Amino acid sequence: QQQVKQSPQSLIVQKGGISIINCAYENTAFDYFPWYQQFPGKGPALLIAIRPDVSEKKEGRFTISFNKSAKQFSLHIMDSQPGDSATYFCAASNGGAGSYQLTFGKGTKLSVIP
Amino acid sequence: DAGVTQSPTHLIKTRGQQVTLRCSPKSGHDTVSWYQQALGQGPQFIFQYYEEEERQRGNFPDRFSGHQFPNYSSELNVNALLLGDSALYLCASSLMNTEAFFGQGTRLTVV
Fold first, then answer.
1. What average pLDDT values come out for chain A (114 residues) when binned by 10 residues?
2. How far is the alpha carbon of B10 from chain A, nearest alpha carbon, in Å?
3. Which run of H or of E encompasses A51?
4. Which of A58, A101, A105, B98 is the most exposed, having the fewest neighbouring CB atoms within 10 Å of its CB?
């Protein structure tokens, strides 16, 4: 069964701190690992994505770290801001970015307090 | 660019009824996927349409069916609604091997 396990379920971080969310997967055929951000009442929006041929990808304050041997990947949000307060989902798919089904984690609700 | 648009935004139906949800993909996109997101959960893949054919299907019963039109827009139909079908239904569009963009979803409540 294809699964992506995400932790923690919720996270509270002080403004300016680092938020870290972790995911683990089982299916070694997965070759695309995106992170989505979702605000209440909105659909998920792509934040950043990585493929297994690189171990790290950084875009602004967001960094994905990827460990292929451990089948784990994580999202780091540097200098966290109150506007980052949202639910974050990791996901995985095999065969391409948008061409195949995404398997999502259960989400992490991030609260950044001033 | 209007992005992915879904209609209606909210819907209330009675158990046993049928419902049709609609999705217009982002301009230039030819692939539409549907997801169900229960409260407090991650989205779950229902199915994907490409060139008016169902290309992939997740673990959902036959009560869930869909269609893609020549202009790439899509419909999701759910028959014999159950209370457990209450969820946010998300449509995502993409072009081969590019990222998927999600709409804002349709909130379906079954009473």
1. 87 98 94 94 93 94 96 98 98 74 95 96
2. 11
3. none
4. A58
